[in-house]
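Chain X:
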Amino acid sequence: MNNNKKKINMSSLKRVFRFLYKSYPKLLVLVVVCIVISSITAAVPAIFQQQVLADIKTFTISGDWTAASKVIIPKVLILVAMYVVSLISITVYTQLMAKITQGFLNKLRVQLFEKMQNLPIRYFDTNKHGDIMSKYTNDIDAIRQLVSQALPTILRAGVIIISVLVIMIYYSLMLTAIVVCGVTIMLVVSKKVAGGSTRFFRKRQASIGRTEAYVQEMMNGQKVIKVFNREDECTEEFERINETLYHDSFKANAYANILGPIIGNIGNVLYVSLALIGGVLLLYTVPNVGLSCITLGGLGVLTIDVVIPFLNMTKQFTGNVNQVSQQVNSIAMAVAGADRIFSLMDSEVEVDDGYVTLVNAEIDEDGNVKEVDYRTGTWAWKHPHSDGTLTYTPLKGDVRMVEVDFSYVEGKQVLRNVSVFAEPGQKVAFVGATGAGKTTITNLFNRFYDIEDGKIRYDGININKIKKSDLRRSMGLVLQDTNLFTGTVAENIRYGKLDATDEEVKAAAVLAGADDFICRLPQGYDTMLTNNGENLSQGQRQLLAIARAAVSNPPVMILDEATSSIDTHTEQIVQRGMDKLMEGRKVFVIAHRLSTVQNSDVIMVLEKGEIIERGSHEKLIADKGTYYQLYTGAFELE
């Protein structure tokens, strides 16, 4: 077994500490000061106990109790004052830690979410969404326990341990040596047990992520599960995944739960052993060696006023060592969570080396383009050059693909030597069997993935030079799988253009053929949608997606099976709106239903990543090739 798996990943722990300190440097210093004050005041009573016992022994011999009260009472009052200071310090640092912890987690979640927004589509295609969600919940919560509980406990216990050890050494080196031997045994056992605990806590966090990912997948697929009567099979698979989670959790908690009793009992044995040894040393009046001998001048014998406080200090010492060892489990969980969080944060972001941007523009009668700082409805590409000059190219939507090769996975080519030529205002359709590469082409237009070879030009500009956000802003995209967000119908349509007026939202809905059903909803455009619009039909949801693309008013539209979930009657309504939407725009249509592409200017037939036919519907029918066979044999490709 690899011993490295047993060790806590210190690099992840250091990153958490750096981020924590960077978030609240001044408050953390104040917290540390308060913890140190409360810890020292917790250790000091042992000194007062020894002094009071020594005073009592002295005055017992002399019998002058009137004088004793004048000596003992001030010391008791000082001790009470120290406890009050300790209480204030504890109150202050606990309240500050609550603020620091929640603020820190808030910043960590924001940073995690910001990083996620900059990750490429490939990351989400290759990682389960439930597992990603688990990083925001379970893994963040593990770090919360570290920051809010483990760190203050370890710091406070550490200061107490050091303070008590110094006091022990001051009073008796012999008794201190006995305590150190016992604590050494405690640390060895703690290290051994904590190694297994760390390993299984790391496995447990990963198992939680897999479990949540599976549950989410099953929730999304409930209709399919019930249609095919796969409830039993899904339950069996969940039991297998859950059994792994149970095993990892059981092992982690078994190690964690056994550590406390073991350390506690070693401490009890040490306490009893010290009491017996101290009694023997008192019985034989053995000389005492400690730093006090130097301050008091010469060796003395071990006395009862040293042994009794020493027993209390031993209990305090071992108790705090036990507290520190108990926090190893929280540290292990936090590091496991931090490893998973940082694995996302360290993932390669979407590369965007584009420098050509989209700007508002005005074009005069001579065709000269002028950049303006207000919305005109006219757009232009702002192209800075190496010599410091700027050129402006009007946005027309002229997208061209030249001899493009592409693979999702190295060695498995999806597109081979694909070229797409079309003029602005033309409607281009891609047809072909599943896996032929239709959706891949549109993914490359948006630069969701980058090509391996060839060129893609947009208005004559290589799209690699165009800033991705501006490139995507110039294109409207309607996917087969519709995503609606929690909010009103109007807000979901306005997602395509956040500053769209109510009139623009309604016009887009009318254009897409969605206004009729929206007006029949309980609150019309103010109807609240939740859980991806589950209170709407699939066709209605897709109409809203089309309206969302329409309100953005882009020069290029990409329709990936945009009408696949709409019935024939609704499709005719939508088609009329789509025809209006397509006027003056270049439109790329991906379709399995061939009836939706007959009026396209150019139809391209793909097979195994290559374009094997291209032309109008009439031309392809006349050629009697693959398209003709598809059209005459079946209207559906799947």
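Chain Y:
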Amino acid sequence: MAFRITYSALNANMDELHLELDQAIVGVKKTLGQEYPCQINAKEVRTGKLLENRNPSLIEQVLGRFHVAGAPQVDQAYQAAHEAYKSSWGNTPWQDRAKLLRKAADLISERRLEIAAIMILEVGKSRLEALGDVEEAADLIRYYVQQIEDTQGFKRQMGKLSDNENAISVLRPYGVFSVIAPFNFPMALSTGMAAAASTAGNTVVLKPSDDAPWSAYKLYECMRDAGLPAGVFNVLFGQGAETGELMVKHPLSDGVVFTGSKEVGMKVLRNAVTDFPKPVLLELGGKNAAFVCATADLEKAVEGCVRSAYGLTGQKCSALSRVFVHASKKDQFVAAFIKRAKEIKIGNPEKKETFMGPIINERALNRFLAAVETAKKDGKILCGGSDLRKSGGDFAHGLFVEPTLVEVPTSSSLFRDELFAPFLALTTFADLKAAIAEANKSQYGLTSGIFSADEGELEYFFDHIECGITYANRKTGATTGAWPGVQSFCGWKGSGAGGKGGCGPYYVAQFMREQSRTVMS
């Protein structure tokens, strides 16, 4: 493959790539049903309690069985990580850490087909979304390593009060970071959080989502094969309410980085900070809005909104969830949007033509169906809304639903609550300022987009929307598609904590604390 796949560059000739992915999927399927131990201090740890990982496209298919970590294994992992930090990694020269992590990034890139094939089965990602996830993971490592290289280890010369005084500021690691990752970007988010912590000199205990443990196991293999010392990168499998809570509360956890829902994130924050302050970096949910103005290019707007609302079956924290359409454009927009939504190929993401795969689990499917019923009461369904399992055929064996567009008043819960589903709520506006003010009432502030040819409208949008990631006139994704070193990913309000986003230039520094060093001659 001579080119890289990103979320916003999906129009290259893919024929050779699809052939390679066909082979990778066949190869991965030969390994189904294996058992995978936790990885602690470079050793396999089996507990006997197994978590079944199933394919949401074919729910009877068991992909693997993963040993669940309980309190003894959590303690073992933190003891190993603490010892590795104290004895080696925390004082390893940053140049050596950078070299090892760059090797891990190269291994991820080399193994992208196998890892993408696993994600297709495990999460239900389309082929191109899965490849983009793997490529982003590798790029995140490279970008974060570059940050420590550009700053020469985060050291800075300070001023003097006397000629014989030499003062510097240096950033130092905290110790052991708990990394708790979601299912939807099982490589990129696990890798990005863990790599930033490791680049800074911390050791890591990672717990992936119980819906996506296989991808995390492959990340561990890349870190191991790159030569990271024992205890630097440990992986525990289990459910967040049990294993994750034990991790966050562990006395040897010096910091926590979490990506997931606002509800769980706030619980993580409360559980992590007890005896004394420690860094808790959170990237939480979103209720992301797009604005289609009177001067909008409708072709761009429709394509951008469809991609952001229904890519990865709407299961992105950045997914488009609300669209405000200028009243004069409503009929045209709705007609064109429905036409485009009906063109979406839904089904098993193993097939190259599939754009939208399954929803991740039964809980998510039930949440989608409840939203459909709310839409019927509060407004009307413009398209979609069906549970495709009832239609039989291939849909009967997986968790498939239709891409849905509803029109409801802004007072509806569908305009407030995050759904994490292929579900878009529409309303109209006459005044952009009023529409932005309405959008800002949300507790979330993650992503937002606008389609307008009016420079004044664009400027007002950027200056007044309460979101950390903003886009204008983006056909490839109205609210989605951030990439390392291009778009910093920082949630405002209830969408994050830390104030400096992943993919951005200030991220690694958050995993470190400042030390002032003064030497008198």
